[in-house]
Amino acid sequence: MTTGSKRAITPLALLAAASLLAGCGGDGGAGTNDVTVWMYPVIADPEVNSAYWAQIEKDFEKAHPGTTVTVEQQPWENRDEKLATAFGSGKGPDVVLLNPDQVPQYLASGAIGPVDKAVEGVKDKFLPNALTALTHDGKLYAVPIYHTVTTTLYNKKLLDRAGITEPPATWDEVKAAAPKLKKAGVATLDYSASNEATLNLNFYPLLWQAGGKVFSEDGKKAAFNGPEGVAALTFLTDLYKAGAVPRTALTNTNIFADHPMGKQQVAMGFSSTLADADLARKAWGAENVVVGKPLGDVKQVAFGVPGGLGLNADSRNTAGAEKFLAFMTEPARIQSLGKASGFLSPRTDVTVPSDAPYAKRFQEALPFAYPGEPSPVARQLMSLIAPEIQAALTGRKSPKEALDAAAARADDLLARQR
Amino acid sequence: MTAGTAGERTAPTPEPVPVPGPPLPADRPTRPARRREARAGLLFVAPMLLLFAVFRFGPTIGAAFLSLTDYRLSGDWRFIGAENYARLLQDDLFWSSLGVTALYTLFFVPLTVGLSLGTALLLHRAVWLRGFFRGVFFLPYVTSIVLAAVIWKWIYDVEDGLLNAALGVLSLGPVDFLGDERLVLPSIAATSAWKGFGYSMLILLAGLQSIPREVTEAAVIDGATGWRRLRWVTLPLLRPVLFFVLVIEAIGAFQVFDAMYVMTAGGPVRASYSLVYLLYDTGFKFFDFGYASALGLVLFLVVLVFSLIQRRLIGRDE
């Protein structure tokens, strides 16, 4: 414990434990009949959310007598802090909801194990993008139970006021619309540049639209400071300086209410969710809501991820946990969860029946959804890039200087990983 | 402080000797009695001592040890000696966050102490509704800092905040209080001062009330009025309390985090990225607990220095 040899022993021990578990043939420890699940408010209404998961517990236990499942509700806030601490202290849940960018870091720390067994025989029924995003070295580390997508959301009233009849769908059209909207007294493109706002909904989509990538091919170097990244940040900075991005961008997070979109101070967002569109219907009136296709420049792309259930590598009831994963990927659950949450189906053979007014538009955006590049430092990297984006926006650095500075820190961070 | 320490202090001279000065208590307890008293005292403070040892002292020692390792989330670690401290010296983020923290302290401490001294003086004089105002001024102190920060974020809002609306009436602004690198620290300091001055105000008020009335009366008879009485009589007598408040507020300022987290997330461009913010990110975002512990220990040393200064100053005045 006190020597460096622990470093070598841990992965070996994990490997040994993993092969032992695999050898057990699904009996996985057999320490208990309980399965603990960490779930997050995927259904925004807290009452509907807890009622839904209470029903899931009952239905599962009816279908699999002898296994009890407890779904514990966790907040989205400080999600990784809590999960990492729980795993680190050996108190992690058996099953946890994971997004693709979380997988590498928990895989690297040996906290999660493969879940291929849970979807044996039905793997080809899932969206290939969804599986790819959750797969590492040929093994699947979370079974997709829903898929999110974001797209453009326009305030027709504000566009009308500026005399814009066709909602801007490309960077060039956004740039052309900016002066007209400014004359009409509003900003053009919503953006959140707070250091705590996720780049997945802000800078990264612009980077991907420009044809760029966050990491180099082997994931060992930063690649966001290439010409594409500079183009994306220049696009953003020019808009900000022209007053086409809300001035509160530096402190805003991606929230609709009480922020420029909700207060009708900005004409469009490029990372809006179905829930945002529903809020907009209430706030602006249905006649003023336009949901478009994802914004495009070199590429047309928006952020969208599969939500998957991962498995604790040290679970004391692997077999029960796998049963729960399989249960949640059955068409009936995909449909009921999708209907309740407003998210989409990760399966190609199942569509979520929805009466939400904009569900169809979001379904159409799904082929453009990109979940981001997996990396164990994906989340950490954001807190290195965000302040440099602020430096570019406030004019302290040029877009190139800002991204180069962030890339230097990113390379340092990547080099420190072990 | 307790019977125990009082007993220790007098231990070398157990027999009462007639000395000039403050009169000794009429019946001093005998030695066994004193020992019993000391034991009782120790028993009384034992729960607190235990809590302190388990939840304060223990973790501090633990953090000091962690700071010499590269402990990470996976649980594996190596002893790396002073490597974290060497890295710290070369980390420009550490230096910039230390600078931000120091600058923030320079804004926050005078503001808070000025505000609490001002209100304490007013309350000391007020005869009418004193309790009411004391309660009102103390109210922000018992509200949550997160709540206060959210409200002040609205007040400072550059588009439609209350302050900018007021400035607009005077055809000034808009001023981007939280988006301007030069304004962000004073703005956050003002929020924290508003939130926290009630505590120091109460301490200063107690200090003012303990100043003997004869002294001020004598000054009045000698013809000192208003400002002169405050400057030459009240403030010098208030000095120990004032020093105490200064040090307490400075220590608080060095630990600033919540207001920055809520109001600016450390921005713009890390202009409000304090030492504790860096510590939080290092520990809970980067899961680099060894390095985070080293940062924590540096903060501990800074606070320790302040506390020692306080002890010296207060001790001298006694």
Automatic annotation (TrEMBL), chain A:
InterPro entries membership: Bact_solute-bd_prot1, SBP
CDD domains linked to this entry: PBP2_TMBP_like
UniProt superkingdom: Bacteria
UniProt KW keywords: Signal
Pfam families assigned to the protein according to its UniProt record, in alphabetical order: SBP_bac_1
Signal sequence region: 1-22
UniProt protein name: Sugar ABC transporter substrate-binding protein
Protein source organism: Streptomyces tamarix
Taxonomic lineage of the native organism: Bacteria, Bacillati, Actinomycetota, Actinomycetes, Kitasatosporales
